[in-house]
Amino acid sequence: MKTLLFFGDSLTAGYGLPTAQAYPSLIQEKLKAEGYEGYTVINAGISGDTTASGLYRLDRWLSAPIDVFVLALGANDGLRGIPARETSQNLQQIIDKVKHKHPDAQIILSGMEIPDIVPGRYAEEFRKLFRELAIKNNVAFVPFLLEGVAGMRHLNLPDGVHPNAEGQKLLARHTWAVLEGVLKQGM
């Protein structure tokens, strides 16, 4: 049995939706549909999680076997204006801990962006930090998890921030596009 751990925030948890509609559950369905037997998806998403709180809670997840670790944190850092350098350092520590405890695990980093309407260079720095981490650590990369979903009313809950069931399908599609390549490499 191979384990895929999705480590994220409300986007991963499927905020406001039944667990079965969150994108990690949709990935589990896709694995079965594509003939990837023996894969278990664990949704370790917690609403409100920042990279700092993710780093704090990471150790309890590392005691279990992990074959693929999907790191999808950072959206709340961006919303709270946490310095990009701090977000980057926290994500790097998470990656380091996963690599140390599970050296054979494949890691996928899901990128986040904040709107360019945010003044100053913050939006650009925030966007770049994910790509730079993916390159530095030689990990698979989903450029922007919310691509085509962010800002689209019909794909979000009434709060305008959290994807609805249709939006979660796009998150699953973006993730699958990268995950499938990772799984094929590992076979």
TrEMBL record:
<dbReference type="InterPro" id="IPR036514">
    <property type="entry name" value="SGNH_hydro_sf"/>
</dbReference>
<dbReference type="InterPro" id="IPR008265">
    <property type="entry name" value="Lipase_GDSL_AS"/>
</dbReference>
<feature type="domain" description="SGNH hydrolase-type esterase">
    <location>
        <begin position="6"/>
        <end position="170"/>
    </location>
</feature>
<dbReference type="InterPro" id="IPR051532">
    <property type="entry name" value="Ester_Hydrolysis_Enzymes"/>
</dbReference>
<dbReference type="Pfam" id="PF13472">
    <property type="entry name" value="Lipase_GDSL_2"/>
</dbReference>
<dbReference type="InterPro" id="IPR013830">
    <property type="entry name" value="SGNH_hydro"/>
</dbReference>
<protein>
    <submittedName>
        <fullName>Arylesterase</fullName>
    </submittedName>
</protein>
